[in-house]
Design a protein that fits this description.
- Two copies of one chain form a homodimer.
- Chain A is elongated and about 85 Å long.
- The first copy, chain A, has three domains: 49 residues, Orthogonal Bundle (434 Repressor (Amino-terminal Domain)), CATH 1.10.260; 126 residues, Response regulator (Rossmann fold), CATH 3.40.50.2300; 127 residues, Rossmann fold (3-Layer(aba) Sandwich).
- In chain A, helix 10 links the parallel strand 8 and strand 9.
- With 355 residues, chain A is of the alpha/beta class.
- Chain A contains twelve helices and twelve strands.
- Chain A has a six-stranded parallel β-sheet with strand order 2-1-3-4-5-11, sandwiched between helices.
- The N terminus and C terminus of chain A are likely disordered.
- In chain A, helix 1 packs across helix 2, helix 5 crosses helix 12 and helix 7 runs parallel beside helix 8.
- The N and C termini of chain A lie far apart (68 Å).
- At the A-B interface, helix 4, helix 5, strand 2, helix 6 and helix 9 of A face helix 4, helix 5, strand 2, helix 6 and helix 9 of B.
- The structure holds a DNA duplex (16 and 16 nucleotides).
DNA sequence: CTGAAAGCGCTAACAT
DNA sequence: ATGTTAGCGCTTTCAG
C-alpha cells in the first residue's frame, strides 16, 4: 500500500520495511559507478527493488549532491533568450542534457557582465558541475572574478582566447559573404557587425573586410548598431544619412539584414537589385523572405558545447572546436533566382493576377 | 588571507576562526525569515561578517535545501526552445527569477508528454519548489501521473481547465483577426491553427470561426499542419491542392503565415491583394515583412506566470489570468498601407530606381 | 553478504 | 546573547 501522503519515500523507509540497513538499500538502488559491488542476496535485492517500486521511491538528488559534491547540474548563460540564434543553441544543449539526465540552470545576462557575475555566484551556490557561456565579451576575462572556484567553463558561439569554446568558423563566414557579393559584381560593401564585444561579428567582419581589400575594393563600412531588426533599421538610416548606401550588404543576423533592407527599400533601394544582401544563421524566416544567408549548425553547436563540458568533467582534456558554415543563395543577393515569399523587386504592385 | 584553495569555505570554518558556534554564524549570516532573531553582540556580528567576507563565504544552497525542503528552484517546461514565442515567454520568467534569486531548471519536451514526465521526475528529484509548464496538451491531465507530489503548477501560454494558467485572450484574438479581414471585404477565410492539442490555436480558431459565421460567411477552412514556416508552406500547398485558396488568411504564428504566403505567392496569389494575411505574436520579423499581426505581451506573460507561482508558494490562492491582445495592421492585409521591407505586391520587378 | 558509524553543510528547537 | 543537540537523505569507509 503506497501510503505516503505528502512526503517522498526515503531509503530509510525502504530499509525499515525490508528489514535491512540503509547502506544495503543504497548499494542496491544506486550502485556506485566505481565500485559496482552490488553484492547482496538475490532475495534481498528483489525485496528492496519491490518495496522501492511500490513506495514509488526516488532518490533525493540534493542529498546525493551534498554527499558526493557532484550535482548533475550545469549552468548555462545566454546573452538574451528571445532570439532564434541563442534559443537554438540552447536547444542543442538541452538535447544532450536530457540524454545524460543532467539538469540545466539557465540564466539570461542581457550581455551585462555584472549581471552575469551575480547569477554565476548563485549558480555556484547550487554547486553546478560546470558552466556553458554564450555571452562572452572580447577583452574581458569570462567570469574572471570567480576563477578560484575552479568550475569548468566552456564557451559557445562566442570565443575567448582564455577559454575552450565551440564556435562557427566566423572568419570563413565573412570571407564567404564577401566573395559571394564580389562575384556578383558588387563593389561598395558594408557590414553590420552587431556589437564590438562579440567575437562573432568581429571575426566575420575581419574575414569580410580582408577579402574585400584583397579584391581591391574600398574598405567596407562597418556598422555596430547591434543584430536585431531595429538595429538593422538604424544602420540603414545611418547609411542613408551619410549618403553611402552600399551595393553589397552583409549582416550578422538575418533579422538585422531584414531590418536594414526594409528601410533601404522605403528609400528606394531595392534589395537584390540595388543592394545585394546576405545574412547569417539561415533561420526559417530567411527562407520565407528569400534572404541569402550563411547557415551555421546552431543546434549542433549547442550539443558540442555540453558534450565537451561533459568530457572535461569526465577528466579529459578538451580543445576548442570550430564548426563549418555554408552559404545558401537566394533572391536577396541574386535576383535571377526565383522569388518565393516576398519579392525583393519593385515597390509599386501591378494589378494582381487572377486567382 | 583568503587561503581557500579548492574548497568553498563553510560556516564551520568561520565559526572556528571567530571562536563561536556554527549556530551563531548561521543566525548572523542567514537570518531566518520568520524569526529574525539575529541577536548577537555587535562585536560578534562584526567579526563573523568580516571573516565571512575575507574568506569569501557563500552558503551552500544544496545544504540549505536539504534542511529546509525549499530549493529556491523551479522547473520550466517548454515545448520547444528555438522559437521566438516560447523563448520570449521564458525570458519573462527568467526576469522574475533573477529578481527573486531563484534558479530555473529548464527542459524542452518537444510536445511529447512522455518526455515531459521523465524530465519532471528528474526535476522533482531536485526538489523544485514549483513548475511552470508551457507545453500543456488539451485533453490530457498535465503531469497527471505525478500529482501525488503536490508541487504547485502554473501553466503559461496554453491553458488547461485543471490548472491555473496565464494565457492570452485567444478567443478575442481570433475574433479580432476575423473582424479585421471581414472589414476588408474578405469572404473566403482560412485559418492555420497549429496543432489540435494546443489551446492557443483551438481557442483562436473558435473565435475566428464564430465571428465568420456570425457575419454570414462560409465556415473558414482549418489547417492543422503546425505553426512553423514549413507548416505554413504545407498548409498553402494543401489550399492550392484543394483549389480553395482563401482571400483572408489567419495563422497562429507569424512564421507559419510567412511560410504560407511565400508558397501562395509562388503560385501567383499576391499577399495583401489576392489574400490578406494576419499572423500572431507581432514578432520583429512581422514588422520587417509588413505582416499584420496580433501582438501578445509574451514577456509579460512569462513574468506573470512566475509571479503567480511565487504567490502560490507564498501561500496565496491564485487564479488564472487572461492577457489582452492587440492588432497591428500592415500591408499584408491592407495594401493601402506603406510597404517597407519586402513588398507584397507584384512578382515581376520593374527597373530599379536610380540610387 | 551486510551493517555501524561518520559526515556532506546547514538550520532549528531547546537549552543556558 | 550564544551553544548543544539533532537531523535533512544519502554515500562511503571500515568491520564484521
Amino acid at each position: 500500500m503506497p501510503i505516503r501522503i505528502n512526503q517522498r519515500p526515503t531509503q530509510r523507509q525502504i530499509a525499515a520495511r525490508v528489514g535491512v540497513s540503509v547502506t544495503t538499500v543504497s548499494r542496491i538502488l544506486n550502485p556506485s559507478e566505481t565500485h559496482p559491488e552490488r553484492w547482496a542476496s538475490p532475495e534481498t535485492i528483489e525485496a528492496i527493488r519491490e518495496v522501492a517500486e511500490v513506495l514509488g521511491y526516488r532518490r533525493n538528488s540534493l542529498a546525493v549532491s551534498l554527499r558526493t559534491s557532484r550535482s548533475q547540474t550545469i549552468g548555462v548563460f545566454l546573452p538574451v533568450i528571445g532570439d532564434y540564434t541563442l534559443a537554438s543553441i540552447f536547444a542543442g544543449i538541452d538535447d544532450v542534457a536530457r540524454e545524460h539526465g543532467i539538469m540545466a540552470l539557465t540564466a539570461s545576462t542581457l550581455d551585462t557582465p555584472g549581471l552575469r557575475s551575480d547569477r554565476a555566484m548563485n549558480m555556484l551556490d547550487h554547486l553546478v558541475d560546470g558552466i556553458i557561456g554564450a555571452d562572452a565579451h572580447l577583452g574581458e576575462r569570462y567570469l574572471g572574478g570567480l576563477d578560484a572556484q575552479r568550475v569548468p567553463i566552456v564557451l559557445v558561439h562566442r570565443r575567448h582566447d582564455d577559454h575552450v569554446s565551440v564556435t562557427a568558423d566566423d572568419v570563413a563566414a565573412g570571407q564567404m559573404a564577401a566573395r559571394h557579393l564580389i562575384s556578383l559584381g558588387r563593389t561598395r560593401l558594408a557590414v553590420i557587425i552587431g556589437r564590438r564585444y562579440m567575437s562573432t561579428g568581429v571575426d566575420r567582419a575581419a574575414g569580410f573586410v580582408q577579402t574585400a581589400l584583397e579584391a581591391g575594393l574600398e574598405e567596407p563600412v562597418v556598422y555596430d548598431h547591434g543584430f536585431t531588426v531595429q538595429a538593422g533599421r538604424e544602420a540603414a538610416l545611418a547609411m542613408i544619412g551619410r549618403e553611402s548606401v552600399p551595393d553589397g550588404l552583409f549582416g550578422m543576423h538575418d533579422l538585422c539584414v531584414l531590418g536594414a533592407t526594409s528601410v533601404l527599400r522605403q528609400h528606394g533601394y531595392v534589395t537584390g537589385e540595388d543592394v545585394a544582401a546576405v545574412g547569417v544563421y539561415d533561420s526559417p524566416v530567411a527562407g520565407a523572405c528569400d534572404l541569402s544567408s550563411i547557415g551555421i549548425g546552431l543546434h549542433n553547436m549547442g550539443r558540442r558545447s555540453l558534450e565537451l563540458l561533459l568530457d572535461r568533467l569526465g577528466g579529459s582534456d578538451i580543445e576548442s572546436e570550430t564548426l563549418p558554415v555554408h552559404l545558401t543563395v537566394r533572391a536577396s543577393s541574386d535576383p535571377s533566382l526565383q522569388r518565393t515569399g516576398h519579392t525583393w523587386g519593385t515597390m509599386t504592385p501591378k494589378a494582381p493576377p487572377t486567382p
